Automatic annotation (TrEMBL):
Gene3D superfamilies: Alkaline Phosphatase, subunit A, Extracellular Endonuclease, subunit A. Residues 257-480 form the ENPP1-3/EXOG-like endonuclease/phosphodiesterase domain. InterPro entries: Alkaline_phosphatase_core_sf, DNA/RNA_non-sp_Endonuclease_sf, Endo_G_ENPP1-like_dom, ENPP1-3/EXOG-like_nuc-like, His-Me_finger_sf, Phosphodiest/P_Trfase. It holds the Pfam family Endonuclease_NS. It comes from the Eukaryota. GO terms for molecular function: hydrolase activity; metal ion binding; nucleic acid binding. GO terms for cellular component: I band; sarcoplasmic reticulum; striated muscle dense body. Residues 224-248 are annotated as: Disordered. SMART domains: NUC. Keywords: Glycoprotein, Hydrolase, Signal. This is ENPP1-3/EXOG-like endonuclease/phosphodiesterase domain-containing protein. Residues 1-24 form the signal peptide.
Length: 497
């Protein structure tokens, strides 16, 4: 082929997997923990197990949890959501997630150099050895452009565009790889989105409060009069949702406070998200907590008696906007509104969130300012997708008592500015960077991991969070910058000072 002919050809070279070295010295035998004869097993770099006796999944996971530091045992619906590896009947109910280079076999006697010495793939795609190779050439592609890391599911959209065919529905994001093309096709029109309206803020319409709600404090917090609270805490627009007309009638309403903004769902009786911008100025002395109901909601939030009922299930109320981040002592009272509270399992999940808070404080010290959106997520189907509202309401109304559904996860989307010294809410769009988390909400951890390893394990893309919550973030940014932020793949936790 001549050089001129080659220049006119479109060539895409893609290696679908990486590779990690393996050896018989890095084999974990199941026989040390369980009877291999009690399960159907597929072994190797990622083992999958099915108990021979129905109903033994929880016992099997329990027998394997915390038994080896190189092995993480999950019921498949509890795998990190970024894996997207649960919603299929051919995936066995228990998955063993191995450190890169380690193998699972049934028995020590199964070790065979021909089997375990060499290399393998299928490990966590965050591991450096699992990253692949992508090279593209031809008149459709821009020259001398380095591709950002991307998921292989994005290639389908690229291929259909190069071939001039209409893509079928798929898991990729249209436009993710457009920056590699000379003349990408126009993006399709976006679906209409809805954003919450403001809750009641007229002082004459505020609820008087229920004197029998069990709360020690009542009507001590008045609505914020800070006119800049909404643009400061939602600098790129409100998180929004797709929805039908019927759903919009039950949409959440906004509660604006000086230090944070909350979207509260009066049907579920929970905050759906809380957004706030941090600028390094905080009141370090924390006042004693005195929880109270939010008078603006006229009784739609939970009472202190309701939380006493939840306490029988090892749940406690934790503020989504924490007191450590309040701008002043006077503003700390707004932290203890029930509109800012979420039921947390007080042992494990509350502790995980406090560790994330410590990390956020370190990031804030390094960058000067951050933006966060955090709230509950409900993976009722175990498939990483937002359930229909009627399913959530059915859970909330179980047993004839209107109590909130317990979240399966807590999400957090953190945004920083890569331009040194520039506040995040004034940062140019191309300099914004995002980190996202989908933290399992559990009474105790699935596995024994150091905090930072646990947080990294349950990091996610912004798109993963959007898929599970139904929210759309960064709506005020240029569309390609939104696509970049929602598809950026986590590779490590941001460095902290």
């Amino acid at each position: 082929m001549s050089a001129s002919t080659f220049r006119e050809q479109r060539v895409v070279l893609f290696l679908c997997v990486g590779m990690a070295s393996t050896s018989c010295d890095q084999v974990i035998a199941l026989e040390h923990f369980i009877d291999p004869g009690s399960v159907y097993s597929l072994v190797g770099p990622t083992a999958r197990l099915r108990p021979k006796q129905p109903g033994d999944v929880a016992q099997l996971v329990e027998a394997l949890r915390c038994r080896d530091s190189h092995l993480l045992a999950y019921a498949k619906e509890r795998l990190p959501k970024r894996y997207h590896y649960s919603d299929h009947r051919r995936i066995e109910p228990v998955v063993l997630d191995m450190d890169s280079g380690y193998l699972v076999l049934n028995r020590e006697a199964d070790k065979n150099p021909a089997l375990c010495n060499g290399g393998s793939h299928g490990y966590d795609n965050m591991a450096p050895g699992m990253q692949s190779l992508f090279v593209a050439h031809g008149p459709a592609f821009r020259q001398n452009v380095t591709a950002r890391p991307f998921r292989s599911i994005e290639l389908y959209e690229l291929m259909t565009e190069l071939l001039g065919i209409e893509p079928e529905p798929n898991n990729g994001t249209r436009g993710t790889l457009h920056y590699l093309l000379r003349k990408p096709k126009p993006l399709p029109e976006e679906p209409s989105m809805r954003t919450p309206d403001m809750c009641v803020v007229d002082g004459s319409e505020l609820g008087e409060g229920d004197k029998e709600d069990g709360c020690m404090c009542r009507n001590t917090v008045r609505p914020s009069t800070a006119p800049d609270a909404l643009p400061r805490h939602t600098p790129w627009g409100l998180p929004s949702q797709e929805g039908t007309e019927a759903e919009s009638e039950m949409s959440p309403c906004l509660l604006s406070n000086r230090d944070y903004v909350t979207a509260f769902d009066r049907t579920l009786r929970l905050p759906l998200w809380t957004a706030f911008t941090l600028n390094g100025k905080h009141e370090h002395a924390i006042a004693n907590a005195c929880w109270e109901r939010d008078a603006r909601l006229k009784g739609a939030d939970l009472s202190c008696h309701d939380y006493e009922t939840l306490a029988t299930r090892s749940l406690t109320k934790e503020p989504l906007f924490p007191p450590e981040l309040a701008s002043s002592r006077a503003e700390q009272s707004a932290v203890w509104l029930h509109s800012n509270a979420l039921p947390f399992y007080h042992n494990h999940s509350a502790g995980v969130r406090r560790e994330l808070l410590r990390l956020v404080q370190l990031w804030e010290a390094r960058h000067g300012s951050l933006h966060l959106v955090t709230g509950p997520a409900f993976d009722l189907g175990g498939n990483g997708r937002r359930p229909p509202l009627h399913m959530l309401r059915a859970v909330a109304e179980a047993d004839g008592v209107l109590m909130p559904p317990v979240p399966t996860h807590v999400f957090c989307v953190v945004t920083r500015c890569l331009s040194e010294g520039v506040p995040v809410d004034r940062c140019s769009a191309e300099k914004l960077d995002a980190a996202a988390f989908l933290l399992p909400h559990l009474l105790r951890p699935e596995n024994c991991q150091p905090w930072q390893q646990y947080l990294l394990q349950h990091s996610a893309t912004v798109g993963d969070v959007e898929l599970l919550t139904g929210l759309r973030f960064y709506r005020g940014l240029p569309r390609y910058e939104r696509i970049r932020l929602r598809t950026a793949i986590p590779q490590a936790l941001w460095p902290a000072p």
